[in-house]
Design brief:
With 378 residues, the protein is an alpha/beta fold. The chain has 16 helices and 13 strands.
C-alpha cells in the first residue's frame, strides 16, 4: 500500500487496526494507544516549536526563524511559544499576524519560574507534540527552561536546538581568534547549565553561541546606535585600544539561517553539538565608525575617533569588549553546509540609519557624560 506524505494519520490508523484484529476496540482511548496515536499524527510528524523570549538582543530571532522554517520542506507546521511579557505593539511581535499568518502563536509566562511542563503542554494543547524544538528564550534549566527540556524529552524530539551565547567564552591571553567552539567557557553560566541538563536527559541537543545581532525588526539597538549617537552630534567616539579589534555584527536573518541549518544534517549537528553563530564578514571597531558616518552622510574626515587605554580608564558605554572577542561560523559551514551570510553591515546601514532617524535617534537625549572625560584622557 502506497502511503503519501499527506496521510501519515491514515497509515498509522491502518497499522493499529490490523494489529488489533480490526474492530472499534482498536481505537479505544487507552493511555498507551492514545499516546502512540498522538505521537504519530500529522500534527507532530514535522512540527516545529520556537520558544521565543520577550525581546532584547535575541528578540527578532523567533520571527526570522519562523519565516525561514516555513519554506523548509522538512517542516509542515510552525508554532511560536511566546513569552507573554512581550510588547505586542513593538517589533517583531507587531508583525506576527501580517508576516506569519500560518504560524500559530501561543503565549505563556516564560519568565515566571513557576511555569512548568504541564502548564506549557496545556497551553499548547494536551495532544500537541513536536519533532523539532528551537529554544530562544531560556537562560538556564529552571522554570520554563527546565520545562522545555522535559517536554522535549517526553516528545522524543529529533532535535532540540538551543540559542545560547558566545558571551560565556573565557579566552586566555594566548587564545587565537576567532574563538573556536573549544574555547573555555564560564561553567556557572545559565546557558552552560542548560546545555548540561539537556545532555543529562539524553536529548539530541544542538547549541548555538551567537554574539552581536541587528535586524530590521529588532528591539535592541545598542551596538550601532552607540556610533550614530555620537556621529550625529559631532561628538568624539571613544574607542578602546587602537580600534583594529574585530567584531561579528550579524543580521538576524543570518542567525536564523544558521539555526535552521541543523536540518541540513541532523546527525552531524548532534555529533558536533556546539556551534559558533555569527557572520564571517568581520570588521574592526574603527571600520564600524566609518561605515556609520557614510550612512549618516558625514565625511570620514569629520569623524573624531579617540582611542584610549581601557585598562586605565574603563570601558565606559562602549558596546563591545575592549579587546578582541569574536567568533566565526567555520564549523557550521563545514559540518552543516551553511552557505554563509546573506547580509553585511555596510549594505544594511542605509535602512538602519533610516530606522534610527524614524526612532527619533537624532533628536533624543543621549548621555555622553563619560565620553568627554575619556576623550580628553585619550
Amino acid at each position: 500500500m502506497a502511503v503519501t506524505r499527506s496521510a501519515p494519520f491514515a497509515a498509522l490508523a491502518a497499522v493499529l487496526l490490523l494489529s488489533s484484529g480490526g474492530g472499534a476496540d482498536a481505537f479505544a482511548p487507552s493511555k498507551a494507544s492514545s499516546f502512540a496515536l498522538r505521537r504519530g499524527s500529522s500534527l507532530s510528524m514535522s512540527a516545529a516549536l520556537i520558544v521565543q523570549n520577550k525581546g532584547g538582543g535575541h528578540g527578532e530571532l523567533g520571527y526570522q526563524l519562523a519565516k525561514n522554517l516555513q519554506s523548509n520542506p522538512k517542516i509542515t507546521s510552525v508554532t511560536i511559544l511566546q513569552d507573554d511579557a512581550c510588547k505586542d505593539a513593538q517589533e517583531p511581535f507587531a508583525s506576527y499576524a501580517t508576516d506569519l499568518p500560518d504560524v500559530k502563536v501561543v503565549k505563556v509566562p516564560l519568565g515566571d519560574e513557576s511555569t512548568d511542563a504541564s502548564a506549557i503542554q496545556s497551553a499548547l494543547g494536551d495532544d500537541a507534540t513536536f519533532e523539532y524544538v528551537w529554544d530562544n528564550a531560556s537562560k538556564g534549566p529552571v522554570g520554563a527552561g527546565k520545562a522545555v527540556c522535559d517536554l522535549a524529552k517526553g516528545w522524543n524530539v529529533k532535535l532540540l536546538t538551543y540559542v545560547s551565547s558566545a558571551g560565556m567564552y573565557q579566552p586566555a591571553p594566548e587564545t587565537v581568534f576567532p574563538m573556536s567552539e573549544t574555547t573555555p567557557i564560564k561553567e556557572s553560566a545559565g546557558q552552560a547549565q542548560y546545555d548540561n541538563y539537556a545532555v543529562e536527559l539524553g536529548l539530541p541537543l544542538v547549541s548555538f553561541r551567537p554574539q552581536y545581532i541587528y535586524g530590521p525588526k529588532a528591539n535592541k539597538y545598542d551596538y550601532v546606535d552607540w556610533y550614530l549617537d555620537r556621529i550625529c552630534r559631532n561628538a568624539p567616539l571613544p574607542i578602546p585600544g587602537d580600534g583594529t579589534q574585530k567584531v561579528s555584527l550579524t543580521h538576524s536573518a543570518d542567525v536564523a539561517s544558521l539555526l535552521a541549518s541543523v536540518l541540513n544534517d541532523e546527525d552531524a549537528a548532534v555529533e558536533q553539538r556546539y556551534f559558533n553563530c555569527g557572520t564571517d564578514d568581520l570588521i574592526s571597531y574603527d571600520e564600524v565608525a566609518m561605515l556609520c558616518a557614510e550612512a549618516a552622510g558625514v565625511d570620514r574626515s569629520d569623524v573624531d575617533v579617540a582611542h584610549y587605554d581601557a585598562e586605565a580608564l574603563g570601558k565606559g558605554k562602549f558596546p563591545f569588549r575592549p579587546s578582541d572577542f569574536y567568533v566565526a561560523p567555520d564549523v557550521a559551514k563545514e559540518k552543516l553546509g551553511w552557505e554563509g551570510p546573506g547580509h553585511n553591515l555596510k549594505e544594511d546601514l542605509g535602512w538602519y540609519f533610516e530606522g534610527y532617524v524614524a526612532r527619533g535617534g537624532k533628536e533624543r537625549e543621549v548621555d555622553l557624560s563619560k565620553d568627554p572625560v575619556i576623550s580628553a584622557e585619550a
